[in-house]
Hints:
The radius of gyration is 19 Å and the shape is globular. The termini are far apart. Strand 2 (32-36), helix 2 and strand 3 (59-62) form a beta-alpha-beta unit. It is built from four helices and seven strands. It has a seven-stranded parallel β-sheet with strand order 3-2-1-6-4-7-5. The longest helix is centred in the C-terminal third of the chain and has 16 residues, at 130-145. Helix 1 (15-27) runs parallel beside helix 4 (130-145). By secondary structure, the chain is an alpha/beta fold. Helix content is 23%, strand content 19%. The protein has one domain: 3-Layer(aba) Sandwich (Alpha/beta knot), CATH 3.40.1280.10.
Amino acid sequence: MRGYFGIGSERLSKPHNLGVILRTAHAFGAGFAFTIGSPMEEDAVRQTDTSGSSTHLPYYRWPDFDPTRFPEGCVLVGVELTDDAVDLPSFRHPLNAAYILGPEKGSLSQPVQDACAHIVKIPTAFCINVGLATALTLYDRSILFGGHAPRPLVQRSRSHPGKKRTGIGLNGN
């Protein structure tokens, strides 16, 4: 994967959500993870961070938001369901980025939104869990930068074991 990225959340209140964020960040190869204004008990976080990310991934606990804490050249990307946000599938991820997600019951603070170069949203009818939003955001980034082979235009058809191919498609043709 090219570039680097970090991911974190502002004002997170549930330790299991932080555990999921850390485990997901570790799984997708994040360079760092962080929380802003989110005091957590480490034992509770470890219950869902089953990969032991703390031994593989720098994790920063910041009491408040300060954009100068991020590496030079790191583009801040807010993940928030706002009217003016860009849909995640249409977003061109920066090479070097820090993704900031909002809290479980609320939105990113205005100072964080103002500091972000981009605000993206996952095109859903309503807000989803912050752990799931983390996974979808990082999966989308991995599709863009992961070096995967292009998707084929036509999928290979596979028959089930013991089932004879009939040549009949879904439309009966």
